[in-house]
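FORM 7B: Structural annotation worksheet

SECTION A. Query
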Amino acid sequence: MTTNSVATDDRLPNKQWLTDNGLQAFAGYPLTVDSRVVGVMALFSRHLLSATTLKTLERIAQVLSLGIERKQTEEALRDKDQRISLAIAATKVGIWGWNTKTNRIRWDARMFYLYGIPPTDDGFVDYADWRGEVGPEDLPEQEALLQSTVRRQGYSSREFRIRRRSDGALRIMQAMEAVKIDAEGATEWVVGTNRDITEQKQTEEELRKAKEAAEAATVAKSEFLANMSHEIRTPMNGVLGMTELLLATDLSKQQHHLAETAHRTGTTLLNVLNDILDFSKIEAGKLELETVAFSLRQIVEEVGELFANAAQRKKSN
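SECTION B. Predicted structure
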């Protein structure tokens, strides 16, 4: 909005204030960012504003809009960088970039820490510096993988051991990288990350050993149960055989009843031993289920007879 007659322009309020201050002209321009009005540049003048002046003011407003947009973009990028930095710090990942043309590697602060090397002024190390830290038994394979990634212009993931320079500790690194090509399509940078997974590998190894120990203990327990039950079954079969022979002799009614109870008790114990064997079969995954008809009344009566004497003695006491 522009006018050289503020006293009569109905778009402007407070006419008395304008007149009292001797104002004649007004120029106002919206400041926009992405089609959004974020402010207004306004100017009152006691002199008439020429077309050239108005055009200059319009350009100034445009420059201010661009400045505001740049400032907002810088703030957004700074905020994004801060969040990325926090995320990287939380994951304890080091970031690197290898320039295949200069054979130098750019490291962030975390990479220097991981390798136990004092930070350089420009944040770069030579390829030979990294090469010298990798374990000699892992180096040939690692360099072959890197060169393959460069040739394929692709992506790779690998693990290798280093000897940390600051304290000589052996550490295990997990590396991930991808190729960045130049305008001619040739590989210029290999950018990637390093993460120290030493503790993770130690935990995995401890879990593996614990799992093997638990499996070995389970096998030993199953073998013990099977051997124990077999050892007891042999004399138990002898006892049952003798009671069967005893039942075939001329016994009184009471003697026959007692011998029969002893035989049923032995049979029950033999079934318990069979159940122990079944537990061993369950752990070995070899249990087979059977469908057998039975008399519930008979089982209840036999259980009652099995505990009748003990119950009678307890009642007498």
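SECTION C. Observations
The chain has eight helices and nine strands. The first strand starts at residue 2 and ends at 3.

SECTION D. Sign-off
Analyst initials: ____
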